[in-house]
Amino acid sequence: MKYRNILIGLLLTQVLFFSCTGYRQFKFTEYKVNRIDIQGNKLISKEDLRTNIPGLKESYARIFSPKTYGFFEAKRKLKDSLGKSPAFIQLFNTPNPSLNKAYLEITKEAIHKYYRNNGFLKNQVYLRIDTIHKSNKLANITFSIEENSVSSFSKNDSFLVDNPQLGKKIEAYYITESVISVNDRLNLELLKKEKENITHYLKNQGYFYFSNEAVGLKLNDLKDSSLFRVGIIYKIPDFKEVNTNRLYDRLFRFGKASFINYQYSDTSNIGVLNTTALSKLITFKEGDLYSVDQLNQSLQNIYASDQFKSVSIKFDTSSTRVFPKVELVPNEKFNFSSELGGSVFRGIPGPFLTNSFKVRRVFSSLDYLDFSARVGFEAQAGFINTDQARKNLEVNLSTTLNFPKLFLPATIKKQLGALYASQTQLGFGYDYINRPEYLRTIFKIFQRYQWRKSPFKTFQFSLVDLNILNTNYPETSTASAFKSYLEELRLQGNNLYRSFNPSFVSSIHFTYAYRSFLPSNELQAGESFQIGLESGGSTLNLIGNKKITFIENILGSNQNIQFYRFLRFNFDYRKYKMLGINRKSQLAFKFIGGLAYAYGEENDYQLPYEKNFFIGGPSSLRAWKPRRLGPGAYNSISNLIEQPGSILLESSVEYRFPMFQMFGKMNGAVFIDAGNIWTFANSKGEKDGYFAFDNFYNQIAVGTGFGLRWDFSYFLLRLDLATKVINPAKPINEKWVLSKTSFSSGENPIEFNIGIGYPF
Length: 760
Description:
Elements: H1 2-19, H2 21-25, E1 32-39, H3 46-52, H4 66-81, H5 101-117, E2 124-133, E3 138-146, E4 152-153, E5 158-161, H6 164-176, H7 188-203, E6 216-220, E7 229-236, E8 253-254, E9 258-262, E10 270-271, H8 275-279, H9 292-304, E11 308-317, E12 321-330, E13 334-345, E14 348-360, E15 368-381, E16 389-403, H10 410-416, E17 420-434, E18 439-454, E19 457-472, H11 477-491, E20 503-515, E21 526-536, H12 549-555, E22 562-563, E23 566-579, E24 585-598, E25 647-661, E26 665-678, E27 701-711, E28 716-726, E29 741-742, E30 748-749, E31 751-756
Parallel strand pairs: 1-3, 4-7, 5-7, 8-12, 9-12, 20-22, 29-30
Antiparallel strand pairs: 2-3, 6-7, 9-10, 11-12, 13-14, 14-15, 15-16, 16-17, 17-18, 18-19, 19-20, 20-21, 21-23, 23-24, 24-25, 25-26, 26-27, 27-28, 28-31
């Protein structure tokens, strides 16, 4: 109905135009292009050609006729010349281009060149002009393309390097660092990237003056005159300009670094810094071979201290030395920011206020102290009756002291080597939550070490992470009903009630993360890996009754205080591979897992609720509601209850592909998700949720579906439709449920998932 009304509206508009006397009498004074067609392209899409070749931007279907655009173009020119407002006729401000044969020949050559740059060295492009209305002066343009064979890199390459020592460096780069692989399609962008990588590699080997201009990459047509399998000749130097720095092959070493402090924008007021603390952030030593990565690493260390608005560098050079001169503009000692906002939940407004206060240079010249406070009075769904909205007062306070170095023994720091942006943090926090069901307080104390070994390797280690949780219940019917609800969940095997019991949770944890690429909405090849280790309540093993008396005295509760002891391990591996001759599609793979074991008998071998694993939802198994799948073959009575587990296995495979342009890139995806969570047999949960090596594979849940990704460059909107394929909660002969998929609330309803960004 909607599309029919739009079509009728367009037809009525056209009829209105035809009934206009001026419109009927209007004629073009010169030939205009009615339509531009692209034919014969197979491996390069029309969207790519339109995007990269300006002369093809008109090669799309237009809503109105060429005469309509021409008529309003003439009206617009007339009104503009009289100084009148163009009014609504700006709607048609996309006139058909004039027929210009010389410009069409330029467009034809641009298509040919674009194909050559993308590996089609023997492509042919033909131009045809068809006059369709001599009286109306309209012509159709057709570009016919014969792509022919595509060339690929053979990796049978040659080297012409004047300096033998430099030649050895180039050969070492070629073996271990080259971005070109055998059978990659010939692509000028890839050759450009190879040049940049060679330059970066050599600048890390001491060649301060080496530049892209010194690298020549030429196609070798002697070994294969057909250029179907292309070899490259690496020629260094290959300067095109006469006035070029000829010190490209000279080795340089670092001289002593110096620092200049610009107190104000007025450069006449310059003070020399006390360089003792700053020098400790420099990762290179005087006399080391010049390395652009080490230089950038040092600058990042200085910038990460948050003491300077800007950090820049200049160089003084001698015959063999590079003397870095670091120019610094300091930040203010005090910074304050405040944000007032609000939310609306089911028609109920909820204001919040967030304040942050930063003090720099408190105990040393490079530390800073962060204070933050948030107060919100917002509405949330009720725990028991989710259709009701409850008012919720929440206060969050935190303080963090940051030092731009690791407070570790010298022997350990020596073993760690040069680091990026290392940091030691000390802090505490206080959370207060006041709901009709309960009053809850959380007090936190933590310490963290953070550092990076490279832009792609990140480490975090915490020796102290203490959390004291306490809950009080008002004497109201709502609070009584909530306590009964927690007890009901406990009888069903759900340990949510433990989150509201007085608790002391302490842990030591370590995290390592590696990522071979920088995050972006753009599809790209690469992989990432993260591993986490955590030991909870380790010091309690040294105490006979496994409790800390003064903590019990602080809480002063009439309930037993929960002291947890547990071990937790988790990992996350992701792989992304680009597919297709144009590398526009992507195959994404994810495999994550975890194991959390509570060995504290005093708590019935139960974990703190936040340390459990959960599965299901928009970034997990999308055919199940968030955190509602499992454990094992357990069939939950209600979808309102989160299902925690101690063992996690989850995997996803997703094929992503481009579709069309619509105010951004519209991409599609098809996916398969699989996994589940389980509990240990000593957890006193449901037996259907216990993990067993001889049966767990029969309890793997599988879902599938398709999705749309609307990429606006600055953010990506995602919609996934998913359905269950194998439901482990069903009896053994009824687990296959794909045939029972429906859009209604039947046995296997389709789940709609909306999110921002890719699911993984």
